[in-house]
Structures are given as structure tokens and as C-alpha cells.
Specification:
Largest sheet: none
Structural class: mainly alpha
Distance between the termini: 57 Å
Helix content: over 70%
Number of strands: 0
Radius of gyration: 19 Å
Number of helices: 9
Length: 190
């Protein structure tokens, strides 16, 4: 009986993960308004009834995709936190390059509506490693501003790289290295 429950739970988790991945890819490709739950379910190898059972509907599925993205991003940031500010910046880029569709969905603003807003706590948790790293470098009242400054720099570089709007010979490893070097210089260790 226990083996059956565990197997069933793994099957549900697998179906949920497939739906989240399919949704992120399809929204990135076509935009949220041009995809249907039927298309998403078919792409994930499941049924629309599975979408309704697991998420409730399209808006809830989109919110779940974004929250899943922030949770995954937060895990990557937490894993790099002990190595310092530079490692957080490198982990940011690495996660984005591994999850480009999810990254664009999370930060593109294309699905944010009144009924499609991710949980603030999930998003805050993802930023917590950066906030803690900066708390060791700047005065407490300056941490939020410093965090947004760092985020703007790394996010801008990653977004430009993913958009492919620079000449093809741009050495992105060097460019991104220069960005995280600038962040380190702007917020030196005390």
C-alpha cells in the first residue's frame, strides 16, 4: 500500500513538472494569450483534466510556473551564497542560461495580471541570499537599494545575452565577468 502511494505521488509530481516545463516553453514561444490548456496538456503528454486537477485553470498554472521558477532560482542562489557576492552573480547567469524560457517568463512581465500574481514570499525568498550577502557589505538601511543595484546589473547583462542583441563575437563570459567584477568593486567586503 505504501509503495503504491509513493509511486502515485511520484507520478503526480512528474506530471506537474512536465506541465510546468511545457507551459514555460510555450508561453516563451507564443505568449500566454496564444496557448490553450489543451495545447499545454498535449505538449506535456497529459490531459486538460490533469491541469484542472493540479492547478485549477490557466491563470493558476501560470502563477505556479512563475513561483516554480522563483523557487528553483532561489535554490540556485542559496547554493552559491556561502561563496559570496561574485558566486551569486555567476549563479544568476548560470541558472538563467539553463532555464531561459522560465527566466523570460519570470522577469518579462508578460503574464502579470490581477489574477496572475506570484506569491511575494516566494519571490522574496529567492532574493534573500543576495540581501544577506550585501548586509555584510553595506549598512542595513542601504541593503535594499544595493540589492536592486546588483540585480539590475546582472539582470541587464543576462537579458542582453539571452536576447542576442549584441554582435555575435561578443565574448559573454568576459563581459559577464566584468559585470560581476564591477559589482564586487561597488560593494567591497568590509
Amino acid at each position: 500500500m505504501l509503495r503504491s502511494l509513493v509511486g502515485s505521488e511520484m507520478c503526480i509530481r512528474d506530471r506537474r513538472d512536465r506541465l510546468l516545463a511545457a507551459t514555460a516553453e510555450m508561453v516563451d514561444d507564443k505568449g500566454p494569450e496564444r496557448i490553450s490548456l489543451r495545447d499545454i496538456a498535449q505538449n506535456a503528454g497529459t490531459s486538460t483534466s490533469a491541469v484542472y486537477a493540479l492547478f485549477g485553470g490557466k491563470a493558476e498554472l501560470l502563477v505556479s510556473v512563475i513561483e516554480h521558477g522563483f523557487a528553483s532560482f532561489g535554490e540556485a542562489q542559496a547554493a552559491a551564497e556561502s561563496e559570496g557576492l561574485r558566486a551569486l552573480g555567476l549563479a544568476y547567469r548560470s541558472w538563467a542560461m539553463t532555464n531561459p524560457a522560465l527566466y523570460r517568463l519570470m522577469f518579462g512581465g508578460g503574464v502579470a495580471t490581477e489574477d496572475c500574481r506570484p506569491d511575494e514570499a516566494t519571490m522574496s525568498t529567492a532574493m534573500a541570499p543576495l540581501m544577506r550577502a550585501l548586509a555584510a557589505r553595506v549598512d542595513e538601511p542601504d541593503v535594499p537599494t544595493a540589492a536592486l543595484t546588483v540585480w539590475a546589473q546582472v539582470h541587464g547583462a543576462v537579458s542582453l545575452e539571452l536576447a542576442g542583441v549584441t554582435p555575435p563575437l561578443v565574448p559573454w563570459d568576459s563581459v559577464y565577468g566584468a559585470v560581476v567584477d564591477a559589482v564586487e568593486r561597488a560593494f567591497p567586503a568590509r
